Every structure is written in C-alpha cells, then in structure tokens.
tRNA U34 carboxymethyltransferase
Amino acid sequence: MLNSQSRLKVYSGLFLASGWPQLRTWLGRLPSQLETAFGSERHGDWPVWQAALDRLPRIEASKVDLNVDAIFIDGGCGEVHRNLIEDQLRRLHPWRKGPYTIHGIHIDTEWRSDLKWHRLKDHIQSLEGRTVLDVGCGNGYHAWRMLGCGAELVIGIDPTLLSVAQFMAVKHFAGDFPVYVLPLGIEDVPPNLRAFDTVFSMGVFYHRRSPFDHLLELKGCLRPGGELVLETLIIEGEQGQVLVPEGRYAQMRNVWFIPSCSTLLSWLRRCGYRNVQIVDVTKTTSEEQRSTDWMRFQSLSDFLDPVNPELTVEGLPAPVRAVFIAESP
Ligand SMILES: Nc1ncnc2c1ncn2[C@@H]1O[C@H](C[S@+](CC[C@H]([NH3+])C(=O)[O-])CC(=O)[O-])[C@@H](O)[C@H]1O
C-alpha cells in the first residue's frame, strides 16, 4: 500500500514547482490537504483501488502521444503483462472520461471527451507555456490534452477519489509529466491566488449551488488577463431565463442552475469578466455519452424520454452544453 510518504511522492514534481511563486501559498497547504483527502481511506473502496494501482507492472513507455483522441501510451509489453494491466484497470470501473489506449488496451469510456476538446481547442488562447488549472477534471483526460497543446504545468482538481486513482494509473504508465490531479474541490484552492494563465471549469457550474460564487472563485484563480474556459449545460431562452430543476435533471440529483446563453454571458460580465464570448453550443448525443464495456451503468439514452428525446425522463429540456470564454480583469 502507498503510505502517506510515497503518496506525496506522486506529487513531488509539483512541490518542486517553486518557479511558480504565486502557487507557494497553496503548495504550503497541500501536504495537509492531501493527508485529509486521502485520509478518507475511510472511503470504502480506496483500498481496492490502491491495491489495483500497486499491482500495475512498471513498464517504460517508448511512445506517449497526447495529441490524439485516445491518449496513447505504448512500450514493449507482452501478453501476460497486458492481461495483468487490463485486469487492474478494470478494477477502477466505471471509466467515465477518456478514451485512452494503454499498452494495447483500449479504454472506451462513457464519454468521448475528445469531442468536447475539439469543440473548444481552436477558440481558446494558445496553451503554449501556460500554467493551467482544470477544475473538476475527472480522471484528467483534458489535462493530458492541455499538456499535449504545450502547457508548462497542468493542475487538475477533483474530489472524486476514483478519478484520482484512474489518473494515477495513466500517469504510472505515461511517466513523469508536469500534470497532476489533486483530490480536492474548488473550495480547497486558496482564494485570490491569481496564479493561473488559463482556468477550465467544464461540467461543474451546474453542480454548484451558488453560481456567482463559482464564477468569482474561478476569477480568483486567474492571473489578471488570464483566460476562463467555462463549459456547462444551458437552456434555450432569453436573457434572464434559467432552469432550476426541482428534483432530478437527467437522473442527476445535484443539478442547480441551467441558464440560457445570454443569461450566463450577463452573469460573467456582472462578475467582472471582460471579452465574454460563447464559442460553441452542442446538444449532447449518444455518440458522445453512452454505456460501454468500461462503464456498464446507465447512460444518456436511459436518461431521455423514450418517446421524445428532446426531453429528459423528468420532462425537462434534454442536455445542451455550451462553451464560454472570458478574460479576467
Ligand atoms: N467542488 C468541486 N470542485 C471541483 N470538482 C468538483 C466539485 N464537485 C464535483 N466536482 C467534479 O466535477 C466533475 C464533473 S464531470 C466533468 C468532468 C470534466 N471536466 C469534463 O468536462 O469532462 C461532469 C460531467 O460529466 O459533465 C466530476 O468529476 C466531479 O467529481
């Protein structure tokens, strides 16, 4: 089992990131934050996931390609090792974000996260040399893609320990790249760090009970002039319209605010962002989100009205997602 010392080792490259003085306030607190988060080994399944990680064989990667839709890691791996790896990776079920191809094993995840990446990548400022924060990064799929686009350092945060375990499995095989997924929520990032060149918040906004506070927290993470990339569920409608589901939305329990595009644009401006733009609006389809062999639970098609797929099973507008970009003052 990884004890707390060796667990910190996973993040050691990050602690060496003294080249980022703005991050010092946070890095100082990080060891105790990690202790607390992993201390939720109270979390029933963590020992199972940790054991799967511990069983992964060490195989040097001879090729890592982060600029392909299925993040690609390969090396000289025989069938015995491949079977062992696949067995361990499957213990980290459900795999929601991806896809990945690791030593010949294709992890066909619930989400084709590459589709979201393609929708936004040509609209954002170049990530070359930038310090990036990905809030609610899941298992880090987009964080790897950001690195592939030249980011100098990518920090992802996600409080779901299974996502962190999946990231650790991928990084175990990829090697020592400046990308980290921390088992933390946005509320754990010290306020007003003003450290990151680009901050992504994708698929998180509608889970927040207090939308303005989320937009302001994100602004506090950005350096002046930095770029926010915000992706969230929207409804069709005029400025001022917003859906607040009274119960579930597409079977999700924790959905709070789904604004229209012009409403969210005005909220961003109200929070002080400049050059606020909407760069993509796309209906979520079963090509993008579906059950697979690596995510065997229900998925989008089960969450839509079987007679009218324009509606969710609750009778609300079916999921449409939009990407907003904005500049921090
Ligand atoms: N307080 C919080 N702070 C940070 N993250 C949180 C918090 N609460 C929940 N999350 C995390 O936010 C992620 C939202 S998924 C988006 C993944 C990726 N970004 C994607 O765009 O594919 C939703 C989706 O699939 O749309 C989950 O991994 C949560 O654990």
